[in-house]
Amino acid sequence: MTGTMTRLGAPVPARDRVLVIACGALARELAAITASLDGLDFECLPARLHNRPEQIPEAVRRRVRAARGTYGTILVGYMDCGTGGLLDRVCEEEGVERLPGAHCYELYAGSERFAALHEAEPGTFYLTDYLVRHFDRLILEGLGIAEHPELRDLYFGHYTRVVHLVQYPDAALDAAARNAAGSLGLGYERIVVGCDGLAAPLRSGRRLAVRAA
């Protein structure tokens, strides 16, 4: 099976159970959120899809279809995530809902705060806790900068700052985020946003499933 399965098999009738089919970049936060929500399970698709958004819609469709009959409610733990509306089309065709917003930065920060951040400085490169942890692999290696340093300015020459949207404050992660910004030659800012933006729609999905039963 593609991806990683987490917390499956809770002793709740199938019609009352909720499955979140999510981006692997949300796995750590989903584990913390769902630990206290009986009957809400999650399955993460490979995080590498973060860099291949055109593959997300059909990957989600396959998992939605495979999960039918086992769960009463299926939620999609992606935002649009660069699919250009194609994920919304799949969700409509399959009769499921996705997380609100265009990407995880907006989800975590909230639409109003993110819009204000973008308006204040359009040349901002955003990091979540996940992207900080995997910065070298996803950014420096994934974009070829580690092997060809000259690519850094090609990709980031029009950026002015890095903003780390913090889910869980951690001194070591803060230092890693500062180093990441430095490796890109950009200024650094840190904003603690928490996980409420992710937790709220998941809890709503769980309540809806219980009411529907």
What does this structure look like?
- By secondary structure, this protein is α/β, with parallel strands linked by helices.
- The chain has 10 helices and 8 strands.
- Helix content is 44%, strand content 18%.
- It starts with a strand and ends with a helix.
- The protein has helices at 27-34, 56-67, 86-94, 104-109, 111-120, 129-133, 135-141, 151-156, 171-183, 196-212, and strands at 4-6, 18-23, 40-45, 73-77, 97-98, 124-127, 161-166, 187-192.
- A 5-stranded mixed beta sheet has the order 1-3-2-4-5, sandwiched between helices. A 3-stranded parallel beta sheet has the order 6-7-8.
- Helix 2 packs parallel to helix 3.
- It has 2 domains: 4-103 and 195-212, Rossmann fold (3-Layer(aba) Sandwich); 111-192, no CATH class.
- Helix 1 (27-34) links the parallel strand 2 (18-23) and strand 3 (40-45).
Short description:
The chain is an alpha/beta fold and 213 residues long. The chain contains 10 helices and 8 strands.
Question: Helix- and strand-based class?
Answer: alpha/beta
User: Can you name the CATH architecture of the largest domain?
Assistant: 3-Layer(aba) Sandwich
The total of helices stands at 10
Helix content: 40-55%
Q: Specify Rg, calculated over alpha carbons.
A: 18 Å
CATH class of the largest domain: Alpha Beta
* CATH topology (fold) name of the largest domain: Rossmann fold
Which strand order spans the largest sheet, edge to edge or round the barrel? 1-3-2-4-5
Largest sheet: 5 strands, mixed
Features:
2 domains, 5-stranded mixed β-sheet, 44% helix, 8 strands, alpha/beta, 213 residues, disordered C terminus, Rossmann fold
